[in-house]
Amino acid sequence: MIAAGAGQVEIIERLIDKGAKVDAVDNRRGFTALMGAVWTNRSEAVEALLEHGAPVDQKDRKGNTALFWVANRGWAGLV
Questions:
Q1: Could you point out which of 6, 7, 10, 39 has its C-alpha 20 to 30 Å from the C-alpha of 66?
Q2: What is the distance between the alpha carbons of residues 18 and 20, in angstroms, rounded to a whole number?
Q3: What is the pTM of this model?
């Protein structure tokens, strides 16, 4: 999740290759790696996660999806 929020695509790829789950959630907000990448406007990380099957309809603890966070943050370029 930290790698996604920092836009570290190479690290994301390595973690996934080693078995990291793209739908894993953090304990604090229920964010996925995709939500972290969206939150910090990291388009390359978003693309990499989507290519590996990151679910776009997964919800955080408040019931929001990654698409909600795109709209909320005003980053239409990520859509």
A1: 10
A2: 6
A3: 0.90
